């Protein structure tokens, strides 16, 4: 599962969405910027969670094309006549969720690329939720379904990717140094511990 932020331009929303993605176990998301200053904000907000990789792009179209080739259903969070209740979706399928700009919502390109539009039923007077709140609500429904289906009980990474992420999470500073030096990460021993005696100065 992944999420695409399309032109979300407020740093606190970017940071909150990234935090929610980490909370439900998403390790890689995408962000589209139509304007250069938003790209700067996205780079800044990405630091709010060192556990989630943010891939920056200029258009939602190639991102969605790649995600569809990976077998993902593409959902856009927006209210329109053909949208369905977000709880009616089967999130146990590979899924990409697009959330749009705070003021104008998702673009026409995003709507064209979507398999389905989803909305969050509301009973009050306001017309919409904050984009980071809406993203969190949908993500945690997806987590609920996926956990009930047992999808969190098995690893969905290759052995190589798992070892890479495990090392970066366990030794973030050492991982940064090794990447800067162009050196490989150490291997795991038979007990699942990294075989390293590399010392990094604080």
Topology:
Layout: E1 2-6, H1 11-23, E2 28-32, H2 36-45, E3 53-57, H3 60-69, E4 73-77, E5 84-85, E6 95-99, H4 108-113, E7 116-119, H5 131-148, H6 159-170, H7 172-181
Parallel strand pairs: 1-2, 1-6, 2-3, 4-6, 4-7, 5-7
Helix pairs in contact: 1-2, 1-5, 6-7
* Shape assignment: globular
Distance separating the two termini: 36 Å
Summarize the helix and strand pattern as letters: EHEHEHEEEHEHHH
Number of helices, counting only DSSP H or I runs of 4 residues or more: 7
Radius of gyration: 19 Å
Keywords for this entry:
alpha/beta, Alpha/beta knot, 7 strands, 2 domains, 202 residues, 7 helices, single chain
Describe this structure in words.
With 202 residues, this protein is α/β, with parallel strands linked by helices. It folds into 2 domains: 2-148, Alpha/beta knot (3-Layer(aba) Sandwich); 157-197, no CATH class. 39% of the residues lie in helices and 15% in strands. It has 7 helices and 7 strands. The protein has a 7-stranded parallel β-sheet with strand order 3-2-1-6-4-7-5. Helix 1 runs parallel beside helix 5 (131-148) and helix 6 (159-170) packs across helix 7. The protein is globular, with a radius of gyration of 19 Å. The two termini are 36 Å apart. The model has no long low-confidence stretch (mean pLDDT 88).
